[in-house]
Design brief:
The chain is α+β, with helices and mostly antiparallel strands. It is 58% helix and 9% strand. It catalyses: ATP + protein L-histidine = ADP + protein N-phospho-L-histidine.
């Protein structure tokens, strides 16, 4: 044995010193590599993503109910087929109980996309209970497919990605623990030991018990790992599709904004040209009229010539103005003006929107957002007392609030409520002597990260409210979600409103409060 030569106190062998330096320098590099790999893995699973995958409407939930019912039927049929194959000969429980347990274990699939993690936890909890009591149920093909679907759905549809990783990890760990336990106490292993007791009896190179264990582990890793990978790939694909759709919308809006800018620039040019045309012809008409007035009594021929010039200039001026105005009408209104073209290709002459258009606004397609409209009147017909400018302000407030919900919130539902009350009330220290008209937009979401707007929309709402001396409330609610509420004071009722004997018909008939709902 070779010993290292003695060293003085405090001295170290050169090789030892270089090894320490080498390993000490490598540890931070290894740590950084591990952290980088973990970061990429978490990013692939979307842990820090603020995007949530939500099924589009109630139709998806209805399909999940049908899927759960289909698995329940297949589970009952497979139990009977398994019994016919002798799968439950050693089971003492009655057949009806076995069928009931198999059917009940499929129930969580009925809400697999509404509550994906809860569904997964219930499916695997029931699977563990059946595996420890009536393991024959768990090996049926519909049950195996159900375990794959539950795990796949949890990864593909879970909204909280950190919670998804925790729940999926627990379920997979539970599955492998159960698998190890089955190999430890399984009666089938005794048959392998008895039949292949010596190495000479082995059918192959690997010991039969070990080969069976390795095969089962590889199969389960491929089965459950495939569910996790497939589910995460679908989640990533859905996120990319929505990002591309959002980018397409942004590009479309930018193109529309550029078009609007070009239209505005062209209109400014036409307006300047119109000004020049009018100024020229009006000036000529004025000069000729003054000349005709001066020579009216002395020189009728020159007077007639001046009048002919006035007639000609006026006709030309009107014709040119008509052409320019026709060009303006032929250009469709852009989104900034909020107009549209009429059937004749000219500018739309439709009136400004008001309170009567709120149900239509709410019922419009809001990118899968479930919307509800409610209208409250005290007394019935009080909506008719709201002046048109005030109605327009309330409509624009609801329009801006709904746009903010779609763009900047994770909400899945929103409610637009219109209240018109003639009872005097006080809000925020302000007295509404003749009642108020109020619009309120509530949603159940939270702000999306990275989608904050310029704030000009909310500033516009406040400015509109200020012009009517109203009250505005904008901000998150204590119970969750966001609220935009605007209350404007109603003017004093006119003589016609006071002496009216028959109130207008509302959606609630003769009731004191009218409430109507429009599902969006």
């Amino acid at each position: 044995m070779v010993h290292a030569p003695p060293q003085p106190d405090g001295a170290r062998p050169a090789g030892a010193q270089s090894d320490v330096g080498r390993f000490g320098a490598s540890r931070p590099g290894v740590r950084r590599s591990v952290e980088s790999l973990a970061g990429r893995l978490l990013d692939w699973f979307g842990v820090d993503s603020d995007w949530e995958r939500v099924p589009a409407g109630r139709d998806a939930y209805r399909k999940d109910l049908l899927l759960g019912a289909g698995f329940a039927v297949l589970a009952a049929i497979s139990v009977e087929l398994g019994r016919s194959m002798g799968l439950f000969e050693e089971v003492r429980e009655p057949l009806w109980l076995i069928i009931l347990l198999a059917v009940v274990s499929t129930v969580p699939l009925a809400w697999r996309r509404r509550y994906p993690l809860v569904s997964l936890a219930l499916v695997y909890a029931v699977w563990l209970g059946l595996g420890l009591t009536i393991s024959g149920i768990t090996v049926l093909m519909p049950m195996q497919v159900m375990y794959f679907v539950a795990l796949f759905t949890a990864v593909a549809w879970a909204r909280d990605r950190r919670a998804m990783l925790v729940v999926v990890s627990i379920c997979v760990l539970m599955m492998f623990t159960w698998l190890v336990w089955m190999f430890a106490v399984g009666q089938g292993m005794e048959t392998l030991f008895d039949e292949y007791s010596t190495r000479a009896d082995w059918p192959g190179v690997v010991e039969p018990y070990l080969a069976n264990a390795v095969y089962q582990f590889i199969t389960n890793i491929a089965f459950f790992g495939g569910a996790v990978v497939a589910g995460q790939m679908q989640w990533n694909a859905a996120r990319r599709r929505q990002q591309l759709a959002g980018q397409a919308v942004t590009i479309e809006k930018q193109a529309a904004a550029l078009t609007d800018q070009a239209i505005v620039a062209e209109r400014v040019r036409i307006a300047r040209e119109l000004h020049d045309v009018v100024a020229h012809h009006v000036s000529v008409i004025g000069i000729q009229a003054a000349a005709a007035r001066r020579v009216l009594d002395r020189d009728p021929a020159r007077t007639a010539e001046a009048l002919v010039t006035i007639e000609r200039e006026s006709r030309e001026g009107v014709a040119q103005m008509r052409n320019l105005v026709g060009t303006l009408r032929a250009v469709p209104d852009g989104g900034t003006a909020g107009g549209s073209t009429g059937p004749d290709g000219g500018a739309s002459r439709s009136p400004e929107p008001g309170l009567a258009d709120l149900p239509t606004l709410t019922a419009a397609d809001h990118d899968g957002l479930d919307t509800t409209f409610r209208q409250v009147e005290e007394p019935p017909g009080a909506v008719a007392d709201v002046p048109d400018p005030m109605g327009l302000s309330l409509y624009r407030t609801a329009q801006e609030a709904m746009a903010n919900v779609r763009k900047h919130s994770t909400a899945r539902s929103a409610t637009v409520t219109l209240r018109v009350v003639r009872t005097p009330e006080t809000l925020a220290g302000r007295q509404f002597e003749h009642g108020f008209a109020e619009v309120e937009v509530l949603d159940d979401g939270r702000p999306r990260h990275g989608t904050s707007g310029s704030g000009l929309g909310l500033l516009g709402i406040r400015e509109r409210v200020a012009t009517h001396q109203g009250v505005v409330e904008i901000g998150p609610r204590a119970t969750g979600g966001y609220r935009v509420r605007v209350r404007l004071p109603l003017p004093a009722p006119g003589p016609a409103a006071v002496s009216s004997a028959e109130p207008p018909v509302t959606t609630a008939g003769a009731a004191s409060t009218a409430e109507s709902e429009v599902g969006g």
